[in-house]
Design goal:
Length: 152
């Protein structure tokens, strides 16, 4: 039996983005409040490489979600956080017909205040468990983690 968690956040939320071709090898994505992201095809694939590659945006989105999920728990525990650095790598393989992301590895370092080591480690576990992007895609893309936690 799974216990349903009561959330202080909305039960349902939608995220919107629009995309407009730039006339060459990329485009502009526009999200809420008119914020823009310029993306482009990497030079390796015949693009200009003037914007962010969509695969880099994918990895960045995962890192951002992990970061924000960690910070949500850090605030709930009122933990003294000194540093939270994450790095991500998505590996894509050409299978003869096209590319497919075959895995994402996340590494990083968390530095917490004195006597906060256990809380820092718990926040990392909760981050991995509750990041909604990784929860959604972990059945089709494996994730590996190497995140250290230390006190300072």
């Amino acid at each position: 039996m799974t216990m349903r968690l009561k959330s202080k956040y909305p039960e349902k939320i939608e995220y919107h983005s629009s995309s407009e071709w730039d006339g060459t090898t990329g485009g502009t994505a526009t999200v809420s409040n008119g914020r823009k992201i310029i993306y482009d095809t990497p030079e390796t694939y015949g693009g200009r490489g003037d914007g962010i590659c969509p695969d880099e945006l994918f990895v960045s989105a995962v890192l951002g979600c992990l970061n924000n999920t960690f910070l949500d728990f850090q605030r709930r525990f009122e933990m003294d956080l000194r540093k939270l650095d994450l790095k991500g790598t998505a590996t894509a393989i050409f299978d003869g017909t096209g590319y497919k992301i075959t895995g994402v590895s996340i590494s990083g370092e968390v530095v917490v205040g004195e006597d906060e080591l256990g809380t820092g480690e718990r926040c990392v576990q909760l981050m991995k468990e509750y990041c909604h992007l990784t929860r959604t895609i972990k059945t089709c893309i494996p994730f590996t983690y190497d995140i250290s936690v230390r006190e300072e």
